Amino acid sequence: MTADAKSLPRLGYRGGLLTGDIAGRVLIALLLAAAVAVPAANLLAPEGSLLHLSSYTVTLLGKYLCYALLALSVDLIWGYCGILSLGHGAFFALGGYAMGMYLMRQIGTRGVYGDPVLPDFMVFLNWDRLPWYWYGFDQFPVALVAIVLVPAVVAFVFGWLAFRSRVTGVYLSIMSQALTYALMLAFFRNEMGFGGNNGLTDFKDILGFDIQADTTRAALFAASALALAGGYAICRFIVSSKLGRVVTAVRDAEARVRTVGYRVDHYKVWLFTVSAMLAGVAGALYVPQVGIINPGEFSPLNSIEIVVWVAVGGRGTLIGAVVGALAVNYGKTVFTGVWPEGWLFALGALFVVVTVFLPRGIVGLLRRRRGEEAA
Amino acid sequence: MSPMLRTALVIGLSLALSAAAVAADFATLLQGLDTRNFREKMTVTEQIAGSGHPRAAAVLTALSAGDLYVDDASGRVVIRHDDGPVTDAATGEPVASHGGLDRVIANILMRRRIEGALSRLRLNAPAPQMRLKAVRGLFGDLDENTVALLRERRDAEDDPRVAAALAVGLALYDLREGSRGERMAAIDELGGNLAPEARNALRQAAADGALPGPVREAAASALARTQTWVSFYDRVEQIFFGLSLGSVLLLAAVGLAITFGVMGVINMAHGELIMLGAYTTFVLQQLMPGHIGLALVLSVPAAFLVAGAFGVVIERGVIRHLYGRPLETLLATFGISLILQQLVRTVFSPLNRSVSAPEWLSGSVVLNPVLSLTVNRLVIIAFALAVFTLLVLVLNRTSLGLKVRAVSQNRAMARAVGVRSDWVDAATFGLGAGVAGIAGVALSQLTNVGPNMGQSYIIDSFLVVVFGGAGNLLGTLVGAMTLGVLNKFLEPATGAVLAKILVLVFIILFIQKRPKGLFPQRGRAAEA
C-alpha cells in the first residue's frame, strides 16, 4: 500500500493546492485578472474605445462563468465518481429560487400592487399572508444559507435514498432526471408559492444597489469570477485529497472498493451533496444577472445540456468542464444569432460527435496530442 | 248472436274500415289541416294521431314545431325546417317545385294534445330502443295523463329493459303523489337504481319535511344503497381510465423494454421515434383525404417501417460504436432526439398538427347511467394488448426472437455458433423502434401531434421499464398498468400534476426496496 502510494504522482494537498496543476493555475490567474479587468473595461474605458466592453457583454460573460461553475459541479461527480446526474439543473434552479426569493422581498412597495410584504404574484392570487417558507428571505444572510442548504438537503435526501440501495449507472441517471422533472411540475403549480409559470422576476435591487446599474452588473461579474475560481480550488482540493482517490477508485471499480471496506455510499452521498451546493451557488449568481428564474430551469433538457458541456470539454479534468461550458455556450450565442433553428441540430450533432469520436473531450484531445509529441 | 258480441263486431269493423280509409288517403287527411278553424284542426290532428300511419309522428312533430306548411300551388301539405329543403308531409319525399308556403299554425291547446299523442306514439313504437327513449323522456314531466300512458304500456310491454324503465317512471310518480304504502313500495323500487331522476327523487324525499319520518328514513337508506353502487361504478370507471392510461404507457414503453431491457441500450430518442409514428399518420391522412379510417389502419404498418428504418440507421450509425458504454449511449441518443425534433420542426412546423379520428373510434358504450366507456379508449386497450402479445410471440416463438435472446444472454457464445450478432443488433433495435412508431399511431388519436410529444412520454416510459424490471416484457405490462391505475386513483384526490409527482416519488422509494424492479432478471445475465 505504502509502496503504491509513493509511486502515485505527488498529491496536491501535501504541497501547494495547485502544485502540478498548470492549467488550474492559469485558469485561476485568468479569472482573478478578469474579475478586475472586465469591470474596468466596462466602467472606466470610454464608450467607443477598443477596450470598452458593453454592459450586455459583461452580463453575458458573467452568465457563462455561472454555467462554468455548474459544469464544474457536474464534472466533480460524473468525471471523478462516475455518477451521471441528469438532474443537476434542479440544484442550480433551487439555488436560483433562493436568491430570487430574496430579490423578490427587496422589491417591497415598488411592486405593481405596492404591497409591502407580499410579492406581486401572491397579491394576484389573493393570498393574505406570506407562506412560512418565505419568512426570513428579506435578510441576505438567511438567503445565503438557503442558497447552499436547500440544494444540499435535497441532494442529501435523494443521494442517501439512491446510493444506499446501490442505484447506479443508467438507473440513477433516469431517477435524477425524474427528480428534476417532478420539481419542474411542482414549481409550475401556483399553489407552490413560487410564482408558478412566470417564476420570480421584476427584481429591483440587491443589497441596496440597483440591479440594472452598470456598477452592480460589474460587481456581479466579479463575484461570478471569484466564485468560479473558488469552486475550482475546492474541487481541486477534493479530487487531490485522499478522499478524492477513494472516489476515483469508486468510479473505476466500485465493487472492489466496497470489498476493501470503504462505505461507498457515504463517499457518494457526500460528494453528491457538495456538488449540489456548488450548483446552488452558480444558480444564485445567475439569477440576478439574467433577472428572472422560472420553472423552465428545471426542465430535463437543461440538465442534460450541462452534461454535454462537460463531455465536450473533457470529463474527469476539472479544467475541461470550464472550457466546455464556455465553448458550448459561446457557440450557442453565436449560433442562435445567425441561424436560430440550427442550434438544436448543432447541439444534437455535438452530443453524437463527442460521445462517438471524442470520449475524452477537447482537453483529452489536446493532452493526447501533447503526449504524442512528447513521446 | 248476443248483443254484446254484435256491438263489438260493429265497433271492430268500423275501426278497421276507418283505419283503412285513413291509411289509404293520409294525404287527403293532412289537407284537412288547411283551415283557419282550430276546432277542425284539432279533430284532424287527433285523426292523424290515431291513424297509425308511419309518417304520423313526423307530421305531428313538424306541426308542433311550426315546420308544417301548405303549398299554394298544389295544395299539398309539406314540411320545411328553417330554410332547409321542402319535403312532402305525407310521403317524406323531397318536393322539386313549390309555390308560396303558408304555415299551419297550432295553438297552445293543440300543442299540448300533440305532445301527448306523440308520447303515446313513441311509447308504442315497434323498436324497444325507441320505447326506452320515450319512457325516459317522460321522467321529466310525469302527471296523471303521462302516467296513464305508462300504465297502459306496462301491461303490454314484453322487453325487460323497457319494463324496468316503466316501473321506475311509475315509482317516481308514486313517490311524489301516491299514498304512504305506494310511496314505500316506490322507494323500494327506486333504491339501487342509477338513473339520475331516481337518485334525485330519493334525495328530495329524504329531505322533504312534509313526509312522515319512516318514509324519509326509507328514502335515505335507499339512497345510500344507490350511492354504494354509484361509487362502485366510479371505481370501475377509474380502473378503466387507469387501464387506458396504462395501455398508452405500455405502448410507449414496450419498445423501450426491448432496446433497454433486452439489448441494454438506453435510447433517449425513443420518444422521438413515437413522434415519427404519429407524423406518419398525419402524412398518410393528408395523402388520403376522405379516407381517414383507412389511412389510420395503413399507418400502423407504415409507421412501423418508418420508425424501424430510422432505428436501424441510428443503430448502425451511432449506437454500434458505443456498446458497453451505456452512459455514452444515453448522451448520443439524446443528441439524436434533439436532431429529430428540430427536423420535424423544420419540415412540418413548430405547431401541433391535428390527426382526425375516424367515425368508428368516436362514441361510447353506455353500460348504465353512470358508467359509459369511450370507444377510442377501449380500442387503445385492445390494440396495446395485441401489440404486446405479438411482440412476446416474436421474441419467444420466432427464430429472430431466439437469436435476440441468445445475443442478449451471451454474445460471444452466440457468435461462436454462427449468429450474426451485428445483424441481430440492428434487427432488434429496428423492432423496438418500429413498435415505438406503432405507439405513435395510437397516441395520435389521444393527444396533439407536435415536435415535443416525444419528450412527454420518454420519462414515463423509462419509469415503467425501471419499475417493471429491465429485460422482462411481463414486468413492463404489469408496471405500465399499475402506474396507470395508480395515477388515475390519485388524480381525483390530488389533481393531475401532484398525482404525477407522487407516482414519481413512489417509484423512487420503490427502487429502494427493489433496485432491479418488480420482476428482476435472474441468472448470469443479471450480473453482467
Automatic annotation (TrEMBL), chain A:
Membrane topology, as annotated: Multi-pass membrane protein
Coiled-coil intervals: none
GO function term, MF aspect, one: branched-chain amino acid transmembrane transporter activity
Keywords: Cell membrane, Membrane, Transmembrane, Transmembrane helix
A GO cellular component entry from the record: plasma membrane
Keyword check for Membrane: yes
Segments crossing the lipid bilayer: 22-43, 50-70, 76-100, 142-163, 169-188, 218-239, 269-287, 307-330, 342-363
Cellular compartment(s): Cell membrane
Family annotation (PANTHER family): HIGH-AFFINITY BRANCHED-CHAIN AMINO ACID TRANSPORT SYSTEM PERMEASE, SLR1201 PROTEIN
Record's protein name: Urea ABC transporter permease subunit UrtC
Organism: wastewater metagenome
UniProtKB/TrEMBL annotation, chain B:
Transmembrane feature ranges: 239-266, 294-314, 326-344, 375-395, 462-486, 492-511
KW Cell membrane (keyword) present: yes
Coiled-coil annotated residue ranges, if any: none
Molecular-function annotations in GO: transmembrane transporter activity
Name of the protein in its database record: High-affinity branched-chain amino acid transport system permease protein LivH
UniProt-annotated location(s): Cell membrane
InterPro entries: ABC_transp_permease, ABC_UrtB_bac, BCAA_transport_permease
Keywords, alphabetical: Amino-acid transport, Cell membrane, Membrane, Transmembrane, Transmembrane helix, Transport
Pfam families, per database record: BPD_transp_2 (PF02653)
Cited NCBIfam families: urea_trans_UrtB (TIGR03409)
Membrane topology: Multi-pass membrane protein
Similarity comment: family membership: Belongs to the binding-protein-dependent transport system permease family. LivHM subfamily.
Biological process, per Gene Ontology: amino acid transport
An annotated GO cellular component: plasma membrane
Organism whose genome encodes this protein: wastewater metagenome
